[in-house]
Design a protein that fits this description.
Helices cover 75% and strands 0% of the residues. The protein has 136 residues and is mostly helical. α2 packs antiparallel against α3, α3 (52-76) runs antiparallel to α4 (83-104) and α4 (83-104) runs antiparallel to α5.
């Protein structure tokens, strides 16, 4: 394959310098999960008595906020950061997202906070375990 590219003077696409930005493969999964999150937030908002427009706005804002925060964490948190810090940030993001959904479902504020903290702790432990397995 490389001989063919050299013989026909086809530029190698993989020879580009490595950038510091997010790759396309790192944006697809968060975007899909944020769309599903926004749809579910819109469903919960509409189910709890909100109008259709209010539910749509709630879903779009919730999905966009999750996507922006997720990509900001992925972009701004360098790979050299301690895995405990990375785990805590991922847990905080997941716990707050779950707490918002619990609040939209009609749960009391205390219950939403407790559920968010439980999910944050579980995600932090799972992320730390996953990152611990990757580091030599």
């Amino acid at each position: 394959m490389q001989t063919h590219a050299i013989r026909h003077r086809i530029p190698a696409r993989h020879a580009r310098p490595a950038g510091t930005g997010l790759r396309r493969s790192h944006v697809g999964r968060p975007t899909l999960i944020s769309v599903v999150y926004g749809c579910y937030a819109a469903f919960l908002s509409h189910d709890s008595g909100g109008s259709g427009t209010r539910a749509l706005v709630t879903g779009v804002v919730a999905g966009a906020a999750l996507l922006v925060l997720w990509l900001a964490v992925a972009r701004l948190l360098p790979a050299g950061v301690l895995r405990e810090v990375r785990s805590a940030v991922c847990g905080a993001l997941a716990g707050s997202a779950f707490g918002v959904l619990a609040d939209l479902s009609g749960a009391t504020l205390g219950k939403s906070v407790v559920l968010g903290l439980v999910v944050a702790a579980a995600v932090a432990v799972a992320t730390n375990y996953r990152l611990y397995g990757r580091v030599p």
